[in-house]
Design goal:
Layout: E1 4-5, H1 10-18, H2 21-30, H3 44-56, E2 57-58
Parallel strand pairs: 1-2
Length: 65
């Protein structure tokens, strides 16, 4: 389990910021769970891991907030 700052990835950050509205709408039309929260009950181990990970790590950009 990681503690502290997550390793910044410029490639992933840029990809997340440039995904267009049309692409998100197309994915939502095909997959009804795309972009929805609360699907973690299907994988309890993953849900627990992600909850702990999100509480114990922080982003590089959180340092400037």
């Amino acid at each position: 389990m990681k503690f502290g700052m997550r390793t910044p990835s410029l490639k992933k950050s840029l990809k997340a910021r440039t995904t267009g509205k049309l692409k998100r709408q197309m994915k939502s039309a095909v997959n009804p769970f795309y972009g929805k929260k609360g699907a973690g009950w299907a994988h309890p181990k993953r849900k627990l891991y992600n909850k702990v990970y999100n509480k114990t790590t922080f982003s590089f950009w959180d340092l400037f907030k």
